[in-house]
Each structure stands twice: as structure tokens, then as C-alpha cells.
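Appendix B. Chain record.
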Amino acid sequence: MTDRWDDEIDQALGELRADVPAMDQRAFAAGRARLVVAIGAPSMAAPVREPDETATITLPPDLRRRSPPLRRATPWLAVAAAVAVVAVGAVAFLPGDTAPPGGPVGTAAPSASSSAEPSVDGRPGEALPPMPDQPLNTAGELADDVRDVELRPGQVRYVRSARTQAVGDAGPGGTATEDLWIPYDRESDWLVRNAASGEIQARNEEDFVEQRAKGGQFERGALWSQDPQTVAGLPRDPAGLYEWLRSETTGTSETVTAAQEAIGTVISMLADVTGTVPVDLQAALLRTLGYLPGLTVTPDARATDGRPAVAVGHAVDDGLYRNEILFDPATAHVIEWRNVANKPFEGFERDQAFTTDLRTEAVVSRLGQRP
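C-alpha cells predicted for this chain:
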């Protein structure tokens, strides 16, 4: 009886998706941008896969026959997890002894932006409108502060990502960290350590995994970096980038606007920690954010650990919550991503940061060393 039911479901799904064309690079990029909008920041790790290779996800045996939950999944920050199987997660203990300015740990201050209300970002299915004559928000002011991470021979760039998912109706939550070491000689060995605790979304079964690989091509997950050829060919001025975004956004989604898709594309590039996106392009991307509708800018925000930040956010899921990316005002580096409830839902309180990805960086002298 069960096998017959499974066969009928497989047949119905096959007929339902029979007219969908094969995935190409542009469709993949557009899908990734929409996922950034819907669930937040991209993870630093993503599966190794050639562009034309089909990604196959194998469910554990105990999940293959399990009925899907009726409640929604908690919006998460790892784009790669929604596309395919991610590399392992990690253990993180965020500071909780003191409350930083702007609210206790795990909450975010109400969105006081540079404008009283975000500009209208259109409706799903509509194309991205022409570039406005003047900026719509102050995100572009960050461009003047962009600083690169400079390494000398023998030095190593260290990046730590600490992700937290709060307790809610969808589950008990959990924590994860990813420690990444990128050497001056980018062709030599890179090191990544991942661990996970609790029931954080997109975690792997293992609690801890360490990998080394030349050029960051890890066996269980290569770093999610931008395509160098695409990066090299992109304009370095807001007008040119805005027109590129208009050509890349599909405007065909029933739930995500073209502006939100464009925001997701820009944010996914600003999130790159591997050095693939150069400083001049980072600055141009930030200036382009200033012309995209639907954004609010909070110049006096605070990260979860209390660091001062400039928060750039936009509402998603019909305003149920907002996705915020926080920049260090001194360097314009991304220091945190978070999803913040705009109203109580699924066990979360208003202005609670229910999923976060807190990032710290340093320059060290060897792989495996922490500051």
C-alpha cells in the first residue's frame, strides 16, 4: 500500500514539473538571490559541484518516510543549505552575561532608519524599475569606508562565523561555528573547522569536522565564492551595476519582488569572505544598494556582541520579519546577519533576532591559530 502511494506521488510530481527547463547558470544565480532575500545570509560553505552537474540530496533513512511538518520552518541564514547539502555546522557560545546597547543579546533595537519608511519595492512579478535619479537611502555612504584585509607573506586571514537559532515553536534551536583560515598564498592549504550543537537548521550529523585543502577546495564543501570571471566583467559604477541587476533579475517570482531579488544578489557578493570580490567592486555594490527600493538604514545599530554597526535591512514574508546585514562603520566589512521579528510569531517576540550569523576577522601567523 505504501509503495503504491509513493509511486503515485512520484508520478504526480514528475508530471507537475515536466515543463520546467533544465537549470542553467543564470537561473541558479537568480534562485540563489531569491533565497538570500527569503532566508538571509549565505553560509561560508557550499557543496563542491561543477556548474552543469545536477545536485542530488540523499535523505537519511529515518527521514525518507517522514511526513512534512505542518508548521513553517524557521527562516534561516544559510543560502547554501537551501540549495543543496552544506558542509558541517559548528558550536558557538555567544556572549550572554551583559546586554549591549540597543537591547539584550538575542534582540535588536526597533528599526530606526535614515528614512521614516522604506521606499516601495514593487510587487512580485514586476520588473525592477529604472534607476532613480537620487539615492533612496544612505547605504552608499558606507562605500567611502571600504577597507581590504591586507596580508604579508606568511600571514593568514582568519574568519569566524558564529550562527545561532533561537528556541521557538519550530524547535529548541541550536548553535554552530565555522572557523576558516585563508593563507597569503591562496594556492596553498586552507583550513576550516566546523562543529554544531543542538537542532540548528542545516547542521550535519557530525559535531565536529576539520578539513585542509589547497585553494580552499575542501572535499566536503568548497567555499562559496563568486565566479572570478563574472566579478572581473562587472561595472564599477552604480548606474552600470543597476542595469546589470535589471538584466539579471527575473521578475517572475510569485513571492519575491525584483527589488528583493536584486538586493539578494548584491548582498551575496558583499558576503564573500574569500577575497574574490575586490574593494572597488564592494564600494560600487554598496553605492548601488542606495538606489534599490525597500531598504532601511540604521546608522547607530549594534551587533549581537555589542559592536557598533550600520544595519541595512528589508522586510520579508509580508513584513513578518526583516533581514538585516550589519556593517562595521570603520571598514564596511560585514559583521553580522540576522532575521528579526517585526511582530510576535511562532514563539518569537517582536524585535527578537531569532537567527543570527555573527562574524569576526583577524590576521594571524599560521593555520589553526586564533587571535
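Further analysis of this model is presented in Appendix C.
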